[in-house]
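Consider the tokenized backbone below.
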């Protein structure tokens, strides 16, 4: 279920990874806080996965722990698959890696006028373009992922607070 930071949900941001159990739920949780700090109370934050294999499941416990250690709550987030309706309702669709972005681009209708891109591309001067998948790695990988996502979500929130429009 998407998290409405405010009441009207004028802007909708969707974070996408492979299965929606690690990176994209972390991004949803981190962005909620970053948006709130920027005074973006009417932004809707959501996350989804390219694949449906984990639909309905909670975020990976390692992701929940790493996020909780930094003050982010992922407990209400449940995995779901990206749908065609996401392109109709979300102005920002941000992928964690190139593979996710290619899959999203293949699903995207020609009429989609929002921003479809990599989350890390929002961080000025970053040489890192992808958020690595920590699923098969050591627990410390989840902390690294939170670090990357924090910088990107802060950049996105600042960009939205400054009134930036999306671009393709």
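A designed sequence for it:
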């Amino acid at each position: 279920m998407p998290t409405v930071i405010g009441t009207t949900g004028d802007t909708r941001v969707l974070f996408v990874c492979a299965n929606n159990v690690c990176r994209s739920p972390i991004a949803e949780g981190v962005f909620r806080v970053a948006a709130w700090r920027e005074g973006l109370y009417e932004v809707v934050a959501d996350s989804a996965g390219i694949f449906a294999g984990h639909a309905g499941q909670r975020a990976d416990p390692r992701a929940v722990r790493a996020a909780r250690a930094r003050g982010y709550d992922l407990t209400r987030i449940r995995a779901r698959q990206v749908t065609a309706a996401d392109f109709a309702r979300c102005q920002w669709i941000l992928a964690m890696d190139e593979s996710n972005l290619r899959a999203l681009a293949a699903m995207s209708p020609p009429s989609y006028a929002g921003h479809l891109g990599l989350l890390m591309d929002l961080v000025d001067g970053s040489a890192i373009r992808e958020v690595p998948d920590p699923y098969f790695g050591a627990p410390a990988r989840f902390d690294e992922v939170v670090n990357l996502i924090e910088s990107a979500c802060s950049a996105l929130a600042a960009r939205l607070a400054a009134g930036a429009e999306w671009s393709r």
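The first strand starts at residue 3 and ends at 4.
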